[in-house]
Specification:
Shape of chain B: globular
Family (chain A): Belongs to the binding-protein-dependent transport system permease family. MalFG subfamily.
Distance between the termini of chain A: 38 Å
Order of helices and strands of chain A: HHHHHHHHHHHHHH
Pfam families (chain A): BPD_transp_1
Structural class of chain A: mainly alpha
Order of helices and strands of chain B: HHHHHHHHHHHHHH
CATH topology of chain B: MetI-like fold
Number of strands of chain B: 0
CATH superfamily of the largest domain in chain A: MetI-like
Radius of gyration of chain B: 23 Å
Membrane topology (chain A): Multi-pass membrane protein
Largest interface: A-B, 99 and 108 residues
Number of domains of chain A: 2
CATH topology of the largest domain in chain A: MetI-like fold
Number of helices of chain A: 14
Structural class of chain B: mainly alpha
Largest sheet of chain A: none
Largest sheet of chain B: none
Oligomer: heterotrimer
CATH architecture of chain B: Orthogonal Bundle
Main location (chain A): membrane
CATH superfamily of chain B: MetI-like
CATH class of the largest domain in chain A: Mainly Alpha
Chains: A mainly alpha (276), B mainly alpha (286), C alpha+beta (367)
Strand content of chain B: under 5%
Subcellular location (chain A): Cell membrane
CATH class of chain B: Mainly Alpha
Helix content of chain B: over 70%
Chain lengths: 276, 286, 367
């Protein structure tokens, strides 16, 4: 075999291997999607059916039975609300730490991250009691507050890494051009870090959307986001797989599609600024 | 800019996080020292270390600790090892690489509750599940995953969720690897394995540190997967610390004991964090 | 009273003394180049003048005003950065007008200024482009334009040409020289490239380890360096340095002993006490390869042909290598023994602490 042929063969083998692994990892999602268009009987048929006549009735039933739209709206409000709030709080501090670092900046950042290490269960009881006493149990506002605080350390950290990577000379140029600290932030830093802020925000939305611990423990029916709604499908053993799949598809589709579209930014965000 | 303005800008997040940390934690400490059951209000007398004793002597306590650590370490090893291998694989060009990337990232977007439901029902169900069908087709006895290997099942679910994260971080990192360096090594007679071992792995030190750090934060707190799939069982076989405390607090309404357990979780997290920051901290420049 | 007056300027970092008492007077309209090896403090000095670094001692006066503690933007200075530091999210026009807009100048005035600057730098067709759609040379011109538009009292350049390829660098160097002629504004320019320093500067400031080593016109520095550091730093190839085997005084003459050769050197060209140990410096172009009665003998090791001329590397009897720069000749071969004559008028003498104690004769300065 010539060298060229060897290389071609290698490329083909790499392609086959990658595709196989990707399809295997994606299979559960694909199966969930397929199952949501089956009848209950088809859903549990052995051997599993790949070809069948699709039906949409599961989706109608899910909406009727558990009011999908209400929970979806809860998810949207809490994810976006908490993300926007957290960004508003985090941007000024990340900015200050990145551009005017003091001797203790590093310690503060590590401390912030360490609050994220604090396990939620450790404070579950007090948070539950506080939410109950302040009437925040099973409300959107309660979840927004919790989500904001929960993601704040990661958001500050990510923004900090983005800001820190901005070329210093551009900021110095702005300073020489007569920009005030405020002007520097609004006219140069923010426009330059739109990408970074976007990917931070996207990641925060994904984390909020998929958050399950607080959603399960602090909401019941009114403010329950999709994660909590889905959990209510877990009880009937082995029954209603098609409806379960329909509900799951509905719960995940928005964020998965969102994730596909924002893949590039998200990947950037996921590396937490540690990887160029 | 003046220090005072810098402080002012940082104040909101620092104060909020301080409150978020200090208030509930001190409440937890307080609750852990009193008799506090939601079913019997009003009898909140000081009981000293009794709640801790109660929690530690709970038959599930040591199992939960060991399950928590097993889960953490297994998923870290699986995702890092497979992540590095797979990212090295898809780093090379082939047809449809972008689609493969999209497929690979997808499980990361699936919410933990759905993740658990898909695996529990459609994959691992001993009668109707895909795994059972595969076993049957091969003429083997189907395995009842959730009953016989509950912790392994949870590890599979959680790894499936976090593997994409690891892959994506590593793929991004690999793109920044110096190709000239690799070419130089090739000219020096290095094989693909040599390049992987002596150039790629060291290059990935920092990304691996990031992955380990982030995953640890989330893995110590795995909850929904267990809640939805095994319910901690059978027995305590798949109960981790988070689930044990949840069980005490919201199922048995014993706030005192749950708070004592919460403090154990905090302690455990601190121990892990201590070792973690020592091990990977030097690779993270803040 | 100088236009820009730097007095006893100090810069301490935590554990590093970057500027150790800089004194420098710059006249209005001068083109000053700071040059030196990396880490010598040239960029720190420029950035301290710009106000991007704060000084830890001393003062800077500009046009009769103490600017030491003033914010960068209030100093009436404009800077061109090494990386150009263009605002990537703004068009060329917006980049050029950013400072004017911040200063809330009149729209019509801004437009007028931007269009005249862009015309003079041939940027008028690129005004709507973003920096990433420009070539390296165009970006460089935008960076310069951004500085010009503000009509500052002093232009600061921080290694502005180091990111350009060789051909473009030569072209931009010419454009900068032309620009200085046209505007007549004071310019301070940092570079590590001595060719840029020599070709652009009215006066060159050579820095070494946080101190000024010597200030002078390019020719002064070239002809009469006052230390071994300056002598070696300026000139390509480097000045040849040969340790003397002896130094004795015979009436009006010094006798320099170089291996077996004695070279006469007028005492009148020496100042200060005679050192016991000395080194001579002689530039490669002041050595000539001769067929007989040369001052030195050596073996040809290597010849570098540059076209019109050639650098001949020669190993002397004491194992030291020297370089002769001469018009290209093909008859000399590697390994051949040859003789070299030293141009006595161009000899420079260094004492044991590497300071120069000889003077270049007047007539030699005007040859």
């Amino acid at each position: 075999m010539t060298l060229t042929q060897q290389r071609k063969l290698k490329t083909i083998l790499v392609g086959i291997a990658s595709w196989t692994i990707a399809l295997l990892l994606f299979f559960p999602i694909f199966w969930m999607f397929i199952t949501s268009f089956k009848t209950e009987l088809q859903a549990i048929s052995v051997p599993p059916q790949l070809f069948f006549e699709p039906t949409l009735e599961n989706f109608t039933i899910v909406q009727e039975r558990s009011d999908y739209l209400k929970h979806a709206w809860n998810s949207v409000v809490t994810s976006f609300g908490a993300t926007i709030l957290a960004l508003i709080i985090a941007i000024p501090s990340a900015y200050a730490m990145a551009f005017f670092p003091g001797k203790r900046t590093k310690d503060i950042l590590l401390w912030m991250l360490s609050t994220k290490m604090l396990p939620a269960v450790g404070v579950l009881v007090p948070i539950y009691i506080l939410s109950r006493d302040y009437g925040l149990l099973d409300t959107q506002l309660g979840l927004v507050i919790i989500f904001t605080l929960m993601n704040l350390p990661i958001i500050v950290w990510m923004l900090f890494s983005y800001f820190k990577d901005l070329p210093k000379e551009i900021l110095e140029a702005a300073r020489m051009d007569g920009a005030s600290p405020w002007g520097e932030m609004t006219k140069v830093v923010l426009p330059l870090s739109v990408g970074g802020i976007a990917s931070t925000g996207l990641l925060s939305i994904v984390l909020c959307w998929n958050e399950a611990f607080w959603s399960l423990n602090l909401t019941a029916s009114e403010a329950a986001p999709l994660t909590a709604m889905i959990a209510s499908y877990s009880s009937p053993e082995g029954l209603f797989w098609a409806k379960l799949s329909a509900a799951s598809t509905l719960a995940c589709a928005p964020i998965v599609v969102f994730g596909w579209f924002c893949q590039k930014q998200l990947v950037q965000g996921l590396t937490f600024g540690a990887v160029k | 800019m003046k220090r005072s303005i810098t402080r002012l800008l940082m104040a909101p997040s620092v104060i909020l996080l301080l409150v978020w940390m200090v208030v509930p934690l001190s409440m937890t400490i307080y609750f852990s020292s009193i008799n506090y059951n939601l079913l019997y209000p009003g009898r909140n007398n000081f009981v000293g270390w009794m709640n801790f004793e109660f929690f530690v002597t709970d038959p599930g306590f040591w199992i939960a600790i060991s399950n928590t650590l097993t889960l953490l370490l297994s998923v870290l090893i699986i995702t890092v090892v497979l992540g590095v291998a797979l990212s090295a694989l898809i780093d090379k060009p082939f047809a449809g690489r972008n689609v493969v990337r999209v497929l690979l990232i997808s499980p990361f977007f699936i919410m933990p509750t759905v993740n658990a439901l898909i695996w529990k029902n459609m994959m691992m169900n001993p009668v109707y599940g895909i795994f059972a069908w595969i076993s049957n087709s091969l003429g083997l006895e189907p395995i009842d995953w959730l009953s016989n290997y509950p912790l392994v099942s949870v590890i599979i679910m959680v790894s499936w969720q976090w593997l994409p994260f690891a892959i994506l971080v590593f793929v991004t990192a690999l793109q920044s690897q110096d190709t000239e360096q690799k070419e130089a090594a090739q000219m020096d007679g290095a094989t693909g394995w040599h390049i992987f071992r002596y150039l790629t792995i060291p290059h990935l030190a920092r990304p691996i540190a990031v992955v380990v750090m982030i995953e640890t934060i989330f893995l110590l707190a795995v909850f929904a997967e267990i809640y939805v799939s095994t319910g901690g069982g059978p027995g305590y076989d798949s109960t981790n610390l988070a689930y044990l405390i949840y069980n005490q607090a919201l199922l048995q309404y014993d706030v005192g004991v749950a708070s004592a357990g919460g403090l154990f979780a905090v302690l455990l997290a601190n121990i892990v964090a201590f070792f973690l920051i020592r091990a990977v901290g030097k690779n993270l420049t803040v | 009273m100088a236009y820009l007056n730097i007095t006893e300027l100090q810069k301490h970092y935590d554990n590093y003394h970057a500027l150790r008492g800089i004194n420098l007077k710059i006249q209005e309209g001068e083109f000053i180049v700071f040059v030196g090896p990396s880490g010598c403090g040239k960029s720190t000095l420029l950035r301290t003048i710009a106000g991007l670094e704060s000084s830890t001692g001393g003062s800077i006066d500009l046009d009769g005003r103490d600017i030491t503690e003033l914010a960068s933007s209030k100093r009436d200075l404009a800077m061109v950065f090494q990386s150009y530091a263009l605002y990537p999210h703004m068009t060329v026009a917006d980049n050029l007008s950013f400072a004017l807009r911040l200063a809330k100048e009149d729209d019509a005035v801004i437009k007028e200024k931007v269009s005249s600057v862009s015309a003079s730098l041939q940027l008028d067709k690129l005004l709507e482009r973003k920096p990433k759609e420009l070539s390296g040379g165009q970006r460089q011109r935008v960076a310069i334009g951004r500085a010009i538009v503000r009509q500052p009292k002093v232009f600061l350049f921080d290694e502005p040409l180091s990111n350009l390829d060789a051909a473009l660098r030569v072209q931009m160097r010419l454009e900068l020289a032309r620009l200085h002629k046209k505007l007549g504004t004071t310019m301070i320019y940092v570079t590590h490239d001595q060719v840029e320093a020599m070709t652009l500067a009215d006066r060159v400031v050579i820095l070494n380890a946080g101190q000024i080593e010597q200030v002078g016109t390019p020719l002064e520095l070239y002809r009469s360096p006052n230390s071994r550091f300056v002598a070696e730093f300026i000139g390509t190839p480097k000045m040849n340095l040969i340790k003397l085997d002896g130094l004795t005084r015979e009436g009006d003459m010094l006798q320099l002993k170089l291996m077996d050769t004695l070279i006469d050197f007028p005492v009148a060209r020496v100042h200060g006490p005679l050192p016991s140990n000395a080194t001579i410096g002689i530039r490669p172009e002041h050595l000539t390869i001769v067929s007989d009665s040369g001052d030195l003998t050596g073996r040809v090791e290597l010849i570098e042909h540059l076209g019109s001329e050639a650098y001949t590397h020669i190993r002397l009897a004491n194992d030291q290598t020297i370089i002769v720069k001469a018009p290209a000749r093909t008859e000399i071969k590697d390994g051949e023994m040859i003789q070299i004559r030293v141009d006595r008028d161009e000899l420079i003498l260094f004492n044991e602490s590497d300071r120069v104690f000889s003077v270049v004769p007047e007539e030699a300065n005007h040859e």
